[in-house]
Design brief:
Elements: H1 5-15, H2 19-28, H3 33-50, E1 58-66, E2 71-79, H4 82-85, H5 88-104, H6 116-129, H7 135-153, E3 159-160, E4 163-167, H8 168-179, E5 184-192
Helix pairs in contact: 1-2, 2-3, 3-8, 6-7
Amino acid sequence: MAITTDVVKQLRDETGVSVMQCKKALEEAGGDVEKAKVILRKISALIASKKADRRLGAGVAAAYTHGGGTVVGAVVLACETDFVSKNQEFQKLAYDLAMHVAAMNPQFRSRDDVTEGDLKAAHAVFADEVAKIPEAVRAKALEGKVDSYLKERVLLEQPFVKDPNITIRGLLDSAVQKFGEKIEIVRFERLAVK
């Protein structure tokens, strides 16, 4: 399949990734746009890992109010330079993340933030649920339930509220590829009227 400029432009518009990276991904995918998106996601994770040790020096705080003012999500999204932090697309990303926090109510930013106490409490709750499962698979079932529980509560592992096909970590990796800088959620908060 011939890769036309219209197809490259379409992929660029959908992903925000540079024209050259879109063209390379389309060539690798044989012109298939969906395969090219998967290739770009894989590349974005690799790029993000290479930039992980960079220093964050700028960023933006964003808030989203939902439900007639009864729920607020707030996020501090950091990057390396003011150039990126002042970019409208970066600010929109921060706003979308704040909306996600308001909607999904994460408790932890990453698995590193989960304390031993939190893990013990989760194990205690799920131990009762798996008590009737045969001994041979009980430990594996317990770990599966705890893992599932954490995926629902760890922000970086949650499916993005606007596109459940991508996790918040995947969304940030794509942003790193798009903006060419390390990007990280350094703080988030959710407030609600009870």
